[in-house]
Write a structure and sequence with these properties.
It is a single chain. The protein has 342 residues and is mainly alpha-helical. It is 60% helix and 0% strand. The chain is built from 16 helices and no strands. The longest helix has 24 residues. It is flat, with a radius of gyration of 22 Å.
């Protein structure tokens, strides 16, 4: 048997295993709606595994390691970044998908790609770009734009429809078309409810005893207990069903905990937010500068404008693609005077 035919058998064997072993509600690689540009199939990997690998090897994925989750430039190695958040979402989502016999490759691809379009400085960066640009800015849509248009110097990653749908719909308001996408959507919530509280406790902003007892009585009395309970609630209630389900107690308690976190961690006088205005002012200066001087951006973004893309959108592309460190570096380069030496 020729070597290529031998490898083709590997992909086909894996696709057959999906058909035999996965839930009837799972998304099968062999039945994907496909890619925008037709490609020859990989001889070893099913389609969703191929997408996962493309995301993992992308530049935008690597940049997540220097983007804020909640804490701006924290002093310490144990606080989450956008990258570690993404990895925790991926692991939670894979755990749930495996238990429900869903497609782990599709789940992982969506999870790894869901925040590729996030700005530097977390949601404060997203909020200020949304205010500055008349076209608006939302990180879920920007993540899709990254994989469709910005990666690989404008060629995009050419991912399958199901992966792009899951990335676009991972936020609370989204409605994913696959159960795998729905798993990532709930896993994103579980992850940040778990680790943002954990980081805030580590930073001394809150203590475990500060959390409302009526919520911890439902969700759990420690970070690990809450994580375990939230995952179990999804699995137990969704097993063998064509949708991802939580009990009403858990759903309402998670929503209430998120509201409590906004009041006590994300907003107000929390130390987490001390630098937020500075970060937003910095992004405002960068947006105004690059809007007036678009040809100071790097070549790939200049090419987007030359191809007819709105300048407002391309400036958002450029700034949202920056890491925290790079945004600070560009701000200092453009607006902070340096000493003159002779």
């Amino acid at each position: 048997m020729p070597i290529n035919e031998k490898y083709n058998c590997i992909r086909e064997m894996l696709e057959e295993e999906e058909q035999k072993n996965l839930s009837p509600f799972a998304s099968l690689s062999s039945r994907t709606k496909g890619r925008e540009r037709i490609e020859e199939k990989c001889d070893i990997r099913p389609e969703y595994q191929r997408d996962r690998d493309r995301i993992l090897h992308s530049k935008s994925f690597r940049r997540l390691k220097q983007k804020t989750q909640v804490f701006f430039a924290p002093e310490g190695d144990h606080y989450r970044t956008r990258l570690t958040h993404t990895l925790e979402v991926s692991q939670i989502a894979r755990t749930i998908s495996k238990a429900l016999s869903l497609n782990e490759d599709l789940t992982e691809a969506i999870a790894l790609g869901h925040d590729l379009g996030h700005t530097p400085f977390g949601h404060s960066g997203e909020n200020i770009l949304n205010q500055l640009s008349p076209l608006g800015f939302e990180h879920s849509e920007q993540s899709v734009r990254v994989v469709e248009r910005l990666e690989k110097n404008g060629a995009g990653l050419n991912l399958t429809w199901e992966v792009r749908d899951g990335i676009r719909n991972h936020q609370t308001s989204g409605k994913p078309s696959t159960l795998e996408g729905a798993v990532v959507r709930i896993s994103d919530k579980i992850a940040y409810l778990y680790h943002d509280v954990d980081d805030a406790i580590r930073a001394g902003i809150i203590k475990e005893k500060n959390l409302p007892k009526y919520l911890t009585d439902v969700l759990g009395h420690s970070a690990n207990e809450r994580l375990d309970n939230m995952i179990h609630d999804v699995i137990v209630n969704s097993l063998g069903k064509p949708q991802i389900i939580q009990t009403e107690d858990f759903r309402l308690s998670m929503t209430a905990l998120r509201s409590w976190m906004f009041e006590n961690i994300y907003r107000g006088e929390s130390p987490v937010k001390r630098e937020e205005k500075k970060a937003q002012q910095m992004i405002s200066f960068l947006y105004e500068y690059y809007f007036k001087h678009p040809y100071k951006m790097t070549g790939e973004y200049i090419e987007l404008i030359a191809a007819g893309e709105p300048k407002e959108r391309v400036v958002c592309d450029y700034i949202s693609g920056m890491t925290d460190n790079y945004a600070i570096e560009k701000f200092e380069e453009l607006f902070v005077p340096v000493g003159w030496r002779f």
